[in-house]
């Protein structure tokens, strides 16, 4: 049987055509990809920014991070004050234990001072109930550590008599690893001080 051999020129021409076709297809694919990328980049550049109150342009991602940081910081400070100062003879162990997870040694020092002054013993002895009415917070998020001041209004219930107090505190916040459920916000109160305590009006039922 006689074998038929292809002309070497035809084989080379076919190979060259295949190579050129593959190269052209790759170039078209790359061009289409670059075009789509440019289109979506332009779209994002036109819609992924916000204007701050001062008129500056801020990426939405940064705006989201800033809002999240402020919300979590305010929640952390509010939670701490409600746990640390909202106590009675039935919950003070649990509340104080949770509050101490939210602050550093400066918080623990105030706790130990109150304990040595007999604050918690009087709570048990006279069945007092200390209830936080409101916490107003001023927060500076310009740089870490974040400085804050808080004004806490709390009431001490003694039977039919209710004493109201205004407590001003200050401190700083630093970012730490989140610890569920002890420290879900990933923040820690440092340099915490009780700046002033003032008695307000006394209410009688």
What distance lies between the first and last C-alpha atoms, to the nearest angstrom?
A: 120 Å
Please tell me how large the radius of gyration is: 33 Å
**Second rung of CATH, namely the architecture of the largest domain:** Roll
The structure class reads alpha+beta
Mean pLDDT across the residues is 86
Globular, elongated, flat, extended or rod-shaped: what is the shape? rod-shaped
| N-to-C SSE string, H for helix and E for strand | HEEHHHHEEEE
CATH fold title of the largest domain: Nuclear Transport Factor 2, Chain: A
Describe the main β-sheet briefly.
Answer: 4 strands, antiparallel
Count of individual helical segments: 5
The residue ranges in which pLDDT falls below 50 over 5 or more consecutive positions are: none
CATH superfamily of the largest domain: VirB8 protein
Cross-sheet strand order for the largest sheet: 3-4-5-6
The CATH first-level class of the largest domain comes to: Alpha Beta
Helix content: 40-55%
Strand content: 25-35%
| Total beta-strand segments | 6
Count up the domains: 2
Kindly describe this structure.
By secondary structure, the chain is of the alpha+beta class. The chain has two domains: 1-47; 60-204, Nuclear Transport Factor 2, Chain: A (Roll). The protein has helices at residues 8-47, 60-85, 92-100, 105-116, 119-125; strands at 49-51, 57-59, 129-140, 146-158, 161-175, 187-204. The strands form two sheets. Strands 3-4-5-6 form a four-stranded antiparallel beta sheet, covered by helices on one side. The protein has a two-stranded antiparallel sheet with strand order 1-2. Strand 3 and strand 4 form a beta hairpin. The chain is rod-shaped.
């Amino acid at each position: 049987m006689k074998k038929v051999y292809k002309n070497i020129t035809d084989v080379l021409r076919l190979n060259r055509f295949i190579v050129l076709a593959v190269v052209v297809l790759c170039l078209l694919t790359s061009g289409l990809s670059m075009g789509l990328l440019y289109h979506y980049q332009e779209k994002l550049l036109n819609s992924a920014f916000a204007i701050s109150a001062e008129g500056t342009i801020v990426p939405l991602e940064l705006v989201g991070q800033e809002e999240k940081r402020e919300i979590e910081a305010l929640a952390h400070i509010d939670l701490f004050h409600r746990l640390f100062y909202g106590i009675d003879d039935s919950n003070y162990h649990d509340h104080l234990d949770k509050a101490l997870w939210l602050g550093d040694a400066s918080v623990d020092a105030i706790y130990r001072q109150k304990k040595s002054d007999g604050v918690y013993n009087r709570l048990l002895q006279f069945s007092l109930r200390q209830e936080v009415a409101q916490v107003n917070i001023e927060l500076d998020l310009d740089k870490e550590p974040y400085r804050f001041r808080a004004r806490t209004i709390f009431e001490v219930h003694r039977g039919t008599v209710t004493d109201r107090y205004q407590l001003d505190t200050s401190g700083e916040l630093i970012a730490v690893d989140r610890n569920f459920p002890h420290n879900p916000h990933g923040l820690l109160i440092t340099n915490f001080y009780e700046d002033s305590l003032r008695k307000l009006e006394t209410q009688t039922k």
